[in-house]
Design goal:
The protein is built from seven helices and twelve strands. The protein is α/β, with parallel strands linked by helices. Strands 2-1-3-4-5 form a five-stranded parallel sheet, with helices on both faces. A four-stranded antiparallel sheet has the order 6-7-8-9, covered by helices on one side. Strands 10-12-11 form a three-stranded antiparallel sheet. Helix 1 packs parallel to helix 5 and helix 2 packs parallel to helix 3.
Length: 217
């Protein structure tokens, strides 16, 4: 049974939480909407999101609840959810020093300034969630081989494509590594310009076959 990949959203502004959640649903993915860090950590106890969108400023939540912060969520992602792409959406990440403090907790963060507005964040998220590499694209939460129109629905396929757009590899457990190899076989059977490359030490990444040019946006 196919299940939509999930996106964790940590945002203490209810209106922005709802807007970003709708953008995720529009991409046919499942939002995990967390109005505070404790709720985000509870999600991470049982879920394994493809992407996490995190606001660092939790000033709207009651003071007694601030003992657990966004940095704790970033730390959990780095320690236990290494394939989740963290996108920090905050007004406090515009300088190199600001970003360095975040990198100290999670060295693979992407950043989007709140000063550029919510529409820019939604554009950034849409770019990640509708990624295209070679003749593959994420459409409606699955990976589509554009020449044939056939779809690969396993979440590992979606994760590999999103990770390539974020310039990352995936670290896969045995069962997910088998799914990645099956996806690679599926690509070969369709003559795709993309293949799954095993980098060693359980790391996998999508790559273009020799002689192919990446014309993805």
């Amino acid at each position: 049974m196919w299940a939509a990949p999930e996106v964790l959203i940590l945002e203490d502004d209810p209106e922005q939480l709802a807007t970003v959640g709708q953008a995720v649903r529009d991409a046919h993915l499942e939002p995990l909407a967390a109005p505070n860090p404790r709720r985000a950590l509870t999600f991470l106890d049982h879920r394994d999101p493809l992407l996490a969108i995190l606001d660092l400023d939790m000033s709207r939540i009651p003071a007694p609840e601030r003992r657990v912060g966004a940095q704790d969520v970033l730390r959990r992602l780095h320690q236990r959810h290494v394939n989740c792409i963290p996108l920090v959406y905050s007004a406090n990440v515009e300088t190199i020093d600001d970003q360095a403090r975040v990198y100290a907790t999670h060295p693979q963060c992407l950043f989007q300034s709140k000063r550029h507005g919510l529409s820019r964040l939604i554009d950034r998220v849409s770019g990640l969630l509708s990624a295209r590499v070679g003749d593959l694209a994420i459409r409606d939460g699955v990976v589509v081989h554009l020449p044939s129109g056939e779809a690969a629905t396993h979440r590992v396929a979606v994760s590999l494509l999103a990770a390539r757009r974020a310039n990352r590899s995936l670290v896969l457990r045995d069962s997910d590594a088998r799914a990645a190899r099956r996806f690679g076989e599926w690509l070969s059977e369709r003559g795709s310009s993309v293949h799954v490359r095993a980098l060693g030490n359980r790391h996998y990444r999508l790559a273009l076959r020799p002689g192919q040019e990446d014309r993805s946006p």
